[in-house]
Amino acid sequence: MHSSVVSNSLCRFRLVSAATLVPVAAFALALTLLGTPPTALAQQAAVKMVATEAALSPLAKGLKQDMEYLASDELKGRSAIDPAILQARDYLVKRMSEIGLQMDSVDGTPLQPVTIATPSRIDDPTKNTCQLTVGETVVELEVGDGFTPLILGVPKQKVTGPLAFVGYGVTSLDPPYDDYAGLDVKGAIVMMIRKEPGPNDANSPFDGKKNTSNAFFASKVKNAIAHGAAAVILVNDQASIDELIKVQERRIGQEQGRIAGLEKALAASDVENPNGKQRQLKRSQQMLKSLQGGIQASRRGLLAIDAAGSPDGESRVIPVISVARDIVSDLLKAAGQQSVAELEGQINRTYKPSSVMLANSEATVSVDLTNPSFTSENVIGRLPGKGDLADEIVVVGAHYDHVGMGGTGSLAPGTIAVHNGADDNASGTVTMLGTATNLTDMLQEVASHRTVLFIGFTGEERGLLGSKHYVKNPVLPIEKTSSMLNLDMVGRLKDNELYVYGVGTSPSWKQLIQRANAEFGFKLIEESGGYGPSDHDSFTRSSVPVLFYFTGLHNDYHRPSDDFDKIDFGDLARITDMVSKAAFEMVTMPQRPSFAQTPKGVQIRKQRMVYLGVQLSSDAPPVTVVSVLPGSPAAKAGLEKGDQIQKIGKAVITTNNDLQSWVRARSPQENFEITVLREGQQQRISGKLEKRPD
After folding, report:
1. Which letter, b or e, does each residue of 195-208 get, where b requires 16 or more Cβ atoms within 10 Å of its Cβ?
2. Which listed site, 32, 188, 610, 635, has its alpha carbon 20 to 30 Å from 346?
3. The domain spanning residue 629 has which CATH number?
């Protein structure tokens, strides 16, 4: 799933009236609110068995086999701009051929090329140089050792000029402040600190602790250009360095704890899944090494090549580079000035510039960045239609790319490690293959059905590039495409909750998904909107009705920990069978589904990470507690049966869904204050949320 839209999304869970359910289902819903884990649900309510390898169905075994390869380290995280994606492509071609799909939709092949622009990069480090001279002090820097060219600036240029230190590089009318006042930097190479004066000062004249536009990298570079500077040297500020190191140290501690736990588990005589734990251990050790190496560079404040963002045209005029703080401090001292830390502190205290031209100085900066492209392909397998419906098309799609070894799209910044993407989106890809297998069999004796295109999309993680390319260049007419079913992150079912987006894009969908789910009993959470950060969005924008199946965001999303061992293949097989029934009806329904426009403000939901520990009456309002789980956060806070919940903090609670949405948006260890009505008296009850039991 493409990440740019979902970073701050909230989520909810649904409570259905227990009185309308059979006893097992009612018990399952109570456990959802109480926070009881899925494994306990299975044991206590007998809803499902945890499938051992021997107990897996043939479908589940096939899904597992496909995912073992697609989410393996060999594929290096399936980045759409890495040659490893071609191995995943070839695997899809092989599997679609084995299923019996026709593989000739694109000029006799199954491959639709998609050219993807790649970020500027350093092909030849020797062409990227930085030499800094102050008096007798000469410093020659190499890429990665105290110096990094930044893609924010011009990709190719060599300049020479005197050095100037220009504080934060800010010129502001409100508040009045100018680091360039009284300084002529035309033709000079200017050194400036990241951010703006007083970054941690609540009383800063700029905007307190909030950044104004003066702090933006691009704004600083444009201001330097306006003052005639020949190049910009960015120096990381201490507050940003400290914050980054704090995050990295926390992650190092977490990884060390994870390694210790895995080593302890592997040492036990009754260890389960030793091969999987060995893989996890190896991956954690690699990540720890990467983090420990990265923290050393962080202490020097050196920025990554893309840390200042991409060029916007106006900034792409002069070279922009990052130089380590210690090196800049040495140069300033050689010129008889204070260190970076001392000058930074002085500006932050006084809000007065401390800019200076460095006497007897000269710098030569040369940048040589390439801006190439990479071609990977959409993989298309076709199940031909029959009879009167044959000229209409249904697309069943899933993106097969992920975020590679980290970097762009990763939510583990600074980590160089395989982001295997088992759930995102090997799960959707293997479910598409399983659906293709099922539909091929289910449609054999059907006299009339639509053509089905099964498409593995590339470039989804880089902005839905594969699906956008397809709808602009369809292999069969987009105006004859009756519907699209998208599968993205369907491998981590929790509490039997399955999200279905796009239900509002056709009046036909609501009843269709209910019929398909009848024998499977998923707790469907229906979302009307057909837009959002996955490939169905491209089809919605082309007026094609869509359905998007999804099991929710989780803490492993876009991190190396989204691994194969966390997938329940029994659940994945259930989802595949249910999706196959929905797809069968989409393919065979006599009337083409009509398209309906839906709002564009779609929230992508996150799985519940915490629990409160209450069961609610289904007869809200008022929102009434009917039981409290012993030992839960609610019990520890003092909630009681019969309490009517009126508010949590400032949030007014009038429906069960209000409470559920509030809980779903919270994190472990967050404090809460609940206002309840108890025996006619209003009371406030305080407590702390806890991590939802696994």
Report:
1. bbbbbeeeebebee
2. 188
3. 2.30.42.10
